[in-house]
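Milestone M4 deliverable, item 7.
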Amino acid sequence: MVLNGDVRRYYRDNPLMVSSPFGGVDHVNDTLLRNVLATLDISLAGQRVLDVGCGRGYAGEVIEAAGGAYFGVDTLASRTGFKLTLADAEELPFANESFGRVCCIDAFEHFVDQGRAAREFRRVLRPDGCVFLSAPNYANIAGLVKKFSETIGGYEKNTWAPFRNWQPQALEQMLTPSRVKRVFRDAGFPRMRWIGHGAEVGLGLFPWIEHSRMPEALRFRIQRFWGLVGPAVARVWRGASLHTFWKIEV
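Output delivered:
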């Protein structure tokens, strides 16, 4: 059984695996983050914003620029110029209804008890608040590859992901839109809206793009193809994308 301490040690020893479509170790795709928040109609101005699983706190730049007050929570202390609290998502050290927004950007799949974490999000949110969630999505070809690879023993359960040449993760759980909906509805969130990410349709439908044995010239051609058609595919089939973005309301 994977425990929170195992995940903590993994990301301490593999800091380059801390990444998402919005950024990672030393950068932030602020344009994408602002555009996604606007599309989901999530305002930050005047809000106390809790970023759970914040990594190096790169989202704080965007949140504070938008007029929000940023608070980060993670299990590891890392380089950040923002307020950072060391804690697990399943036991947040904050009072009830103390935040207007909770962000969880590509960390939810690593939480040992996702239901408990979602209930903690609900507890610390004000009645008019919402959660912004970015999470990997395996309701696509990448999910089939993940299930097959872990079933036949090529990877241990909950470790396969098409990131960084298919490097095993500490706890990469099989998230799908239906699972996200079920977990958050059970936690007391009745309203949800979600979108796909056109730039990652290629990874969702052809995860071999990131395999270490993929020839570089072929990788470039495949990426170029999916870069052209991915946004259109995501509008028709949101689940084709490797990541999905959510507004989850109380």
